[in-house]
């Protein structure tokens, strides 16, 4: 091996800060972009960020909706709304009770020992030890807390949570209470025949208990959200117009970005002073940011227009279904990389004739039927939903029978495993759990 200095020419991809910024801005949602621009304005005094005025383009197509929207709080207002927390709700109920200062202090401590879902986070014995109470006093304290609203709060496990709610019902169902108390595990596993034999009740009666249990809240504390409420604001509008579709970007969502003219005197100074160099650097950042935002807008618009062309029938026809469409098809059509299409459709929502839809959801995989035509997975899911909705509830269709029906009626070959996957995505339980018993 010889040591020495040699010249070697290589090619490598270097991601500049500007390129990285362009990628981030493209994948940001409208809300995330607004937050990013506000952060940048704090770092760059030459960056001027002003809220956009309402864009009146296409007002003849959206005038009715615009009137409704103007009466509503802005997206920024919504983002700062906070709901009352579970602790706030429970502490307010403590004030309504006639308790001593010591009892209130103990009750408050117990409340702060709950999880966000309303369950007791630690063993009651630990709480009693810290409050210097015996277990009997702790049970009485917990019993009081469990009488609060919402029903089920302060439970130590799911079984106790359900029982607390069942006991509050105006028309108590003692069979349900008995099943949850003594047979909860076999009941959850649908071993109903054994329960019916032991309790000498019909399967239809157990089914009524199951229907009742499904109306209860297994996590009563989650109705109180401590995090800011997140709202989706469509960045695009897809509107039918003279038998075609018009795609429009909602410019008023994104602030106007430009140079802050209060600092123009820094730019007019001659020489290479530190302040002059700093100003020029910040000007370049503003110029690049303005260019990148414009590129983001054009890319999203170009992608949305291409998607709208492919899914035209779906938007114009109420009974239309999504056609098979992939990221690669759109990328090839508008001559960009597949990852660019992915970023341009993630967290981007459009107000369409079919409701507010994420652009990403308009892509769907395809299956080939016996005639060689392709069918989208969304179409198969729609067929499955319609079929299951009309099935005999006493003899629900198995995944294998659904696959056979699709092959016979729709000439589409779908494996039983794929049927199970689509069913899970639709939130439809297996046939054994859909079965109903006659009363």
Automatic annotation (TrEMBL):
<dbReference type="InterPro" id="IPR000394">
    <property type="entry name" value="RNA_pol_sigma_54"/>
</dbReference>
<keyword id="KW-0808">Transferase</keyword>
<feature type="domain" description="RNA polymerase sigma factor 54 DNA-binding">
    <location>
        <begin position="277"/>
        <end position="436"/>
    </location>
</feature>
<protein>
    <submittedName>
        <fullName>RNA polymerase sigma-54 factor RpoN</fullName>
    </submittedName>
</protein>
<keyword id="KW-0805">Transcription regulation</keyword>
<dbReference type="GO" id="GO:0000428">
    <property type="term" value="C:DNA-directed RNA polymerase complex"/>
</dbReference>
<keyword id="KW-0804">Transcription</keyword>
<dbReference type="InterPro" id="IPR007046">
    <property type="entry name" value="RNA_pol_sigma_54_core-bd"/>
</dbReference>
<feature type="domain" description="RNA polymerase sigma factor 54 core-binding">
    <location>
        <begin position="82"/>
        <end position="263"/>
    </location>
</feature>
<dbReference type="GO" id="GO:0016987">
    <property type="term" value="F:sigma factor activity"/>
</dbReference>
<keyword id="KW-0238">DNA-binding</keyword>
<dbReference type="InterPro" id="IPR007634">
    <property type="entry name" value="RNA_pol_sigma_54_DNA-bd"/>
</dbReference>
<keyword id="KW-0240">DNA-directed RNA polymerase</keyword>
<dbReference type="GO" id="GO:0006352">
    <property type="term" value="P:DNA-templated transcription initiation"/>
</dbReference>
<keyword id="KW-0548">Nucleotidyltransferase</keyword>
<comment type="similarity">
    <text>Belongs to the sigma-54 factor family.</text>
</comment>
<dbReference type="GO" id="GO:0001216">
    <property type="term" value="F:DNA-binding transcription activator activity"/>
</dbReference>
<dbReference type="InterPro" id="IPR038709">
    <property type="entry name" value="RpoN_core-bd_sf"/>
</dbReference>
<dbReference type="GO" id="GO:0016779">
    <property type="term" value="F:nucleotidyltransferase activity"/>
</dbReference>
<keyword id="KW-0731">Sigma factor</keyword>
<dbReference type="GO" id="GO:0003677">
    <property type="term" value="F:DNA binding"/>
</dbReference>
<dbReference type="Pfam" id="PF04552">
    <property type="entry name" value="Sigma54_DBD"/>
</dbReference>
<dbReference type="Pfam" id="PF04963">
    <property type="entry name" value="Sigma54_CBD"/>
</dbReference>
<dbReference type="Pfam" id="PF00309">
    <property type="entry name" value="Sigma54_AID"/>
</dbReference>
